[in-house]
Amino acid sequence: MTLPFLNRSVRRLLILLLAGSVGFRPASADDNPAEAAGLQQQQLFTAGDAGYELYRIPASSRRPTTCCWHTARHGSWPVATGGHRRLPAPQHRRWSDLDAPRLLVDASPDDFEPNPLAVQQKLSGADQITVNNPVAIADSQPGVVHFLYCVEYARCFYLRSEDDGLTFSDPVELTSVFDAFRPHYDWKVLATGPGHGIQMRGGRLVVPVWLSTGTGGHAHRPSVNAVIYSDDRGRTWHAGELVSGPERPLNPSETMAVELSDGSVMLNFRHESPERLRAVSISPNGATNWSDVRFDDELPEPVCMASLVRTDRLLGSDRPAIVFSNPYNTESRDRKNVTIQVSFDDTESWRYRRTLEPGPSGYSDLACGPDGMLYCLYERNGTQYGPKSLTFARFPLQWVLDGQSK
Fold first, then answer.
1. In what order do the strands lie in the sheet with 255-259?
2. Structure letter (DSSP) for residue 394
């Protein structure tokens, strides 16, 4: 279904310039051994910056400009979605002074109504409008970035950039696309991603979503997951088929997609089942005929967002690789020890593993660049649901391969 652009007055697009720029400090032999081996890290956003209590829910894209997205929060509620844009080589080691963090979406109570279920379950405040679950897709067409986000866990919008995230179109509302799910699941709460969606080799855009009736705790439960997709580079969107029910696995939600070597699409998702392992399902076309859900014995699940990315040209490898990140914790549900894992056989096994952040750490999103480097934006320090900062890491595949081999 094609939807008209909303009038600019329906939303606010504000520019927020934070003081200074940030750049990577070159590693040396006197530094942490991990940094000397190729890992570079930079703290981008810290709790309290620009008057926001929290920065959470990372998303990223890379082709060729690096764009990082996140939600900014007052208290527990995400009230805005912002971004940080970095120029390509030869400035690839430094965030641009000209493209400082910008506040892309700032929803106002004058423009939107609160989701009553979210207010009832204390997912949102009656006097605040939440902007949540950013999803970015870097298109194979140069300069094009697709961006989706939700308002009040009740409405979904789409933005498009044709200059690598420097400017964006007016938003198009996609909420009616989700109505196709209602005959199968009468949702009251919707969410995209978060993180990044994918563009399949044939051009199809795939964005994982999850839906809830909002009657359970935190208005997130019970839930099911699915995808929405576009075959014309974001101009029209369609609903795929539901992937799983609320019981197998229990309350699935935040999901990441990856295209496999044979052109099928795998979803890897968070859930609350007694099996503390990531759940996966595969579709031959990224939209329909999802396989029965199975659990991946090598990927622990602490009930947290994770990330997947496929690349055919990573430094340190002459083979296609799928890279995975999440808090690797086999002992409890605590969010800590964000770890990078690598598979060379389409996720049949995960042979290599290396810790990125051993301490408290949660959500993460991966991207890979034409320079063969991997990038990870992740929540770091703080408490389980109140991370102190969002940190950006850059490393070659070899840094992971030099870690633990299983």
1. 255-259, 265-269, 277-283, 294-300
2. E
